[in-house]
Hints:
By secondary structure, the protein is an alpha+beta fold. It is built from four helices and four strands.
Amino acid sequence: MIRINLLPQELRPITRTPLPHIISLAVLGAALFFMFQVYMSLRGELSGINTQVAQQEAALELLAATVEEHEELEERKKQLQVMVETIQVILEDRTVWSEHLHQLATLTPENIWYKRIRLTSRRFTEERPRQDPRTGQTRIERETHERLVLELSGYAVDDETGLSSTATLATNTTVDPDFASHFQLYTSRIIDTEFDGYPVREFLFEYIVS
């Protein structure tokens, strides 16, 4: 059977080729594939960065523990250095210390019993004015120094006249010029307590060694 199309040329249906659609789909597929590749690459890079961050955090934790241990060792080193210097002072100056202890025994009232006499160290913070060479202004700076400290601790009872023996000890060690020139009383603590059922005063005197 013969078919005849009587429509004019401009109204006749046009048979279009699917090639542009195929090309568009191919370009879209390539773009999606490229975007997927970029996404996977960025995801892998992000995973690597997260791993590095975790490693750095773990290293920082280990480093923090190491720093803390280092600071503790430095502090212990300073304490040992002070103890060594103290022992050296005692060993090099045995005669002087024997004289100081003899003076202390002479200045101690009869109603006092020493529990402990020892030489230790303390950190003292001093404020000193210092001038800034650039601005010419004076500012207060704090400096920390290690000082030797003589500790006297024990028990005391009042004498027969009711006078406090601890007050007498503090006065004697402060007034005596020879003892006071080497030891300066800077703190004291006195507590009312009992010793073997008897009321006594427990004391702690600390002297800065000049």
